[in-house]
Amino acid sequence: MPRLMLTDKRWEMLLHLMKSTGRIYNKPEHRNTFEGILYRLRTGIPWRDLPKEFGGWSSIFRRFNLWSKKGVLSYLFKELAKDSDFDWVFIDGSIIRAHQHSTGAATTDSECIGKSRGGNSTKIHLAVDSNGFPIYFELSEGQRNDITHAQSLVEHTRQAKIVIADKGYDSDIFRAFIESEGMESVIPKRKYNGEKQKDVDWCLYKYRHLVENAFGRIKHFRSISTRYDKLARNYASMVSLAFMMMWLPMYC
Questions:
Q1: 26 has pLDDT over 90
Q2: Strand 119-128 and strand 114-116: pairing?
Q3: What is the value of pTM for the model shown?
Q4: Number of neighbours of residue 73 by Cβ within 10 angstroms
Q5: Cα–Cα–Cα angle for 54, 60, 64, nearest 5°?
Q6: Residue 211 — pLDDT band, cuts 50, 70, 90?
Q7: How far are the Cα atoms of 56, 160, 191, 214 from residue 135, in angstroms, in the given order?
């Protein structure tokens, strides 16, 4: 049997959350299916190559696609993230290389895959709490600037007291928006024509590595470090599962 990722307690907790959506029924094969999805998350192998111990690959993929469409997998992450500490919120973006097999989806949408000289890519825009645990994320094309999703990240973390970001988020408009939401900002300014740097809480800014650490942790999963999913919805579900696995040890 391939290596599994869930203990009995963790599966019982996840099953309870899934059933609370009203869209999942307690079927005995669900655990094996979920483990098969997590195996693919960890290894990044094609769905067709899933070990037979998890069941038929087509059944597992159809169930994953259905749960993704219903928002069940993103719901698990959001429920676990409700226990976030909002004193400090760190935001940043990270570019993910998109495999050639992830392109060519039969839709008119870009599916959050951007094309540049470096190849196809997707960007994850992430907000983490004071302890470095993920709170909220969005996807975009890889060439998008971080600042384009900055306000949206803050809008989804309105309980925060202080927002910390790097120079990529240097914008007076963005700082004014943060203040209008009743928060403080810790964002250094770029150097323009010898302009002096304004006072910044550098001690707090040094903890910005927490958001970088979160990216580093989820990139241990091969399905995250390289995007193989054609649909942005399905890749977002995989990212939600990766963040969910960060939160689970805090509960059981």
A1: no
A2: antiparallel
A3: 0.95
A4: 23
A5: 135
A6: very high
A7: 34, 11, 31, 11
